[in-house]
Amino acid sequence: MFLNLFFNNPAVGFVWVFAILMALTFHEFSHAAASKWRGDRTAERAGRLTLNPLSHIDWMGFIPLLLLGFGWAKPVPYNPNNLKNPKWDSVIVGLAGPASNLLLAGVSALILRVLLGANVFTELNLLVIFLVLFILINLFLLLFNIIPIHPLDGSKLLLAIFDAPKYAKLRAFVVQKGPTILLVAVLLAIITDLPIFAFISLPAFTTCSVLVGTDCLSFLALIFGG
How much is the pLDDT for 3? Predict the structure, then answer.
C-alpha cells in the first residue's frame, strides 16, 4: 500500500511517513516523560526523553509498519524499582503512551474541524490529509497498545490489577505467551483476510468520523485509492 502511494503520489507518501513518525515519537516520549515524573531517569539517561524521531525508531519495526501496517518503535527502558510507587507508577508509565495518542487525535480533530468549517482548505489539501492520517494513526496506536497482552502497554494495567499470588499463573501466561499470541495474530492479519483486528479498526474509524464530522474510512480510501 505504501509503495503504491509513494510512487503514485510522493507528496502524500511523505505526509504518511511524517504522520507515523510524529505519532510514534510522541508515544515513546510520553513513556519517558512519565517515567521521569514518577522518579525514574533511566529513559532520560538512555536519550529517550526527546522529541527527536531518530531516537525512537527501530528500523526493523518501522519498515514493516510502513509496508504492512504492523511494526514497532524502540521500547522505552525504565526501572520500576526507582518509581515512587512501583506497582501503579508502572501503569502510569505504560499508559502514558496511549494517553498521548488520544490527546493528539483529539487536538488534531479539533484543528481539522475548525479548518474545514471555515472553508480554509479543500479535502485534498496536504495539511488536511496529514491531519486525517494523524488522527487515524494515533487512534490505531491507542487501541492497539491498550490490548492487555505483553509487551503492549495494556499489560501493565492487567498485571497491576491481578497482582495477588492467586493470579500468578495468569500473570505468567500473559508475560510468557503474550508475545507469541500477538505475533500469530499479526501474521494471520497480514497473510489472510480474517478481520483479526476489527475490534481495533472499527472503533478507530468510527471515533475518527465522530471527531472529524466526516467519514474517515471513505476519506482514507480516497487517499490510498489514488
Answer: 62
Is residue 1 pLDDT above 60, yes or no? no
* Integer Cα distance of 192 and 201 in angstroms: 16
Write the pLDDT tens digit of every residue in 180-216: 999 999 999 889 989 999 999 999 999 999 999 889 9
Closest by CA to 2, choosing from 48, 56, 88, 62, is 62
- Residue 226, pLDDT above cutoff 60: no
* 28 part of the active site: yes
Per-domain residue ranges of the chain: 2-224
Q: Rounded to an integer, what distance in angstroms lies between the CA atom of residue 35 and that of residue 30?
A: 8
Question: Which residue among the candidates 26, 28, 31, 78 is catalytic per the annotation?
Answer: 28
